[in-house]
Amino acid sequence: MSRAPTPAPRWKIWGLVAVAFTLQMAVWAVGRALGPEHRTLVLWIQMVLVWAVIVTLAAIATNRIDWLMRMLTRHETAHLATLDLVGQLEIQNGLLKSLARSNDIGRAFQSLARHIAKVVECNRIGLALVKEDGQTLQTFTARVTEEERRHRPRPDLEFTIDRTLIGSVVSSRKPLLTHDLGKLAADFLDANVLHGAGFRSALFMPLIAKNRALGTLNLVSRTGGAFVVEHIDAIGPIAEILAVGILAQQLQVSLGKYRTMETMAELTLSISSDINGAVQAIIGQCDVLEREQSDPALQRDLALVIRQAQRISDLLEKMRHTTQDRLREVAATVHDAGIPSSPHGRHARSNPPATSPPTSSRK
Is pLDDT at 85 greater than 80 in this prediction? Predict the structure, then answer.
């Protein structure tokens, strides 16, 4: 930006007035010395001096006014830019607060819709999230206007990644801008649904966090060509914050599942160890009785008890191995996601502590 020229200082203006006054007095003195016959010439000279001063002062005043206008324009532009930045920060702060207050993604997204609509004008805002199978997208819809807003949001439709616009955005990880959904309705299922609901144009933004495509943020309008390329830049920071918030919520849910699984696994292993100890005691007592008794019928009954007790012991052994394998799988998933297993570390251990199963005394 070019720097505006500095206006003439005040001493130059008053210096010009003083010089003009001195010249006028000098001309008046010369006119008196020359006599009345030169009075007209003196008046003309004085008039020329006066107009020269007036024109010069007008030029200085014009320069001053132009400088003030440039300064005001510059300050106004900076002020508007600051207001725009403050507005963006307020919206982003609102996004973070809404995400932090609720672990329910649908409810949090419902409260975010009004903040997003302040950045880009639209009629409806959608959210599509990739489910755990990696092939299905769960969609949520938020009404922008107050009278249409849902106080108890619920998931809407589910789409597959194939043959959908949101699926193509997730796969490519690039924004998609369409001015006419009707032209795409025959080839893409979600475009057909939106066009059937009366929407004409749409903007799809990918939600990416930690190099993971989590879904899309979708803005739709009932007006054709309602979105332009500039809207992608405007909505980009909001999509980044939303992606980080959604990832944090998903990791929090995964961490909760891991801790629940860990607790249940430890409880299962502890109970199975106690049951196995009691079963081994039963097997040992039955062995003693079987050796001491000579009655064939009683020996058959004792052998049946021993076989059933051994079967219970084998089932407990299988249950312990299954629980430990499942716990290792969950721990590996948490580790790969980068979820801290405790406040003191960032990475969960691949093999969480588990009670070692006691060896059976009889096979």
Answer: no
